[in-house]
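TASK: fixed-backbone design
INPUT:
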């Protein structure tokens, strides 16, 4: 380990403390700290406007809206999903008593390959749960075509896709529902937090009941709900962060441009370019190592970076299908998931956040380029 300062893979977007103090004072004055308070209402409204979606329902994290989406849509049986994601995606299928069915990914985007979905559909399939990995939009049109043909629901885990648009429209409007995570490691955070994106007012009402134990009134419980209400402190924090998130995304964009410029000549390193018509959020900067051409393995580079005080992350390694709890599924067989295995074994996500200095960026690049 060198004595240089550690460069972390991510760094949370933090609101100004004085402004936060003012907001906290207002909460203290009102003595209303949770259960759909005024900052909660305001954040749902401002987020819907910012994201360009009809309705937002806030949650305490990004896992519970996924869990609740499957409940709300009464998903049973088998759910088609991707192994190339954070483990919460599959856990939510399991927690709903459903069987996850893994389908391989498109090697260009890392997202579920729609061409391989139909072969995985059985009479028990009721839903598809894709992930917009790294914030890159899935082939939503093709996925919807398949869903319509077989009468399946589509729930997008959009944890990485805050603010991502395609042809001027939010990709969060796709499918039956989408969910966001506002965890500290994400582009936009509310400390911990998350949201469900909903297309109509009636469903919004139902989801709001479900995240509050199913209460539809003082004495009426309409469904076996859960508790996942966001409190006023985090809603206030979220309102402040929303005011600076565009600037943070632009700072990330500049980092991505520098990484790409510097790495395009490096043999054996592949990275992702912007897609035309897509407004990206630069939530991650994955590189993929071809060990033959690059001259060392992914793990050699990963640990060398670590030694030099540069933290990458091997998102997503191991694949979800490799964890012992899911390994036994027929669809978890590596033969069924060749592209996912290849990607998981070659990826490193480079440090990517709004607070990287020029010096940090240079140090990251030096660990990769100067072998
Ligand atoms: C972060 C993340 C989640 C979970 O979000 P939390 O807010 O941490 O509960 C779910 N899915 C994906 C793809 C994620 O990256």
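OUTPUT:
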């Amino acid at each position: 380990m060198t004595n240089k300062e550690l460069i972390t893979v991510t760094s949370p977007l933090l609101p100004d403390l004085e402004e936060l103090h003012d907001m906290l004072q207002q909460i203290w004055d009102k003595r209303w700290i949770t259960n759909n308070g005024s900052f909660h209402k305001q954040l749902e409204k401002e987020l819907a406007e910012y994201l360009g979606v009809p309705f937002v329902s806030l949650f305490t994290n990004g896992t519970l809206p996924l869990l609740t989406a499957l409940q709300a849509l009464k998903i049973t049986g088998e759910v088609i999903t991707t192994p190339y994601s954070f483990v919460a995606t599959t856990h939510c299928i399991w927690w709903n008593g459903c069987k996850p069915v893994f389908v391989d990914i498109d090697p260009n985007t890392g997202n579920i390959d729609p061409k391989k979905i139909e072969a995985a559909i059985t009479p028990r399939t009721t839903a598809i749960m894709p992930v917009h990995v790294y914030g890159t939009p899935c082939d939503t049109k093709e996925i919807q075509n398949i869903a319509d043909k077989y009468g399946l629901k589509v729930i997008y885990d959009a944890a990485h896709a805050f603010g991502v648009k395609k042809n001027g429209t939010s990709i969060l409007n796709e499918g039956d529902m989408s969910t966001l995570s506002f965890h500290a490691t994400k582009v936009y955070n509310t400390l911990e937090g998350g949201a469900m994106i909903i297309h109509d007012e009636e469903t919004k009402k139902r989801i709001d009941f479900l995240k509050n134990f199913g209460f539809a009134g003082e004495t009426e419980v309409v469904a076996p709900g859960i508790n996942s209400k966001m409190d006023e402190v985090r809603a206030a924090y979220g309102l402040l962060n929303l005011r600076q998130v565009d600037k943070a995304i632009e700072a990330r964009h500049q980092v991505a441009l520098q990484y790409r410029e510097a790495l395009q000549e490096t043999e054996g390193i592949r990275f992702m370019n912007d897609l035309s018509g897509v407004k990206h959020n630069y939530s991650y900067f994955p590189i993929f190592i071809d060990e033959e051409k690059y001259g060392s393995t992914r793990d050699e580079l990963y640990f060398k970076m670590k030694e030099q005080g540069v933290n990458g992350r091997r998102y997503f390694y191991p694949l979800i299908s490799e964890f012992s709890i899911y390994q036994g599924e027929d669809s978890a067989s590596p033969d069924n998931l060749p592209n996912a295995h290849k990607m998981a074994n070659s990826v490193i996500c480079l440090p990517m956040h709004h607070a990287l200095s020029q010096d940090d960026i240079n140090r990251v690049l030096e660990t990769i380029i100067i072998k």
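COMMENT: The chain has 13 helices and 13 strands.
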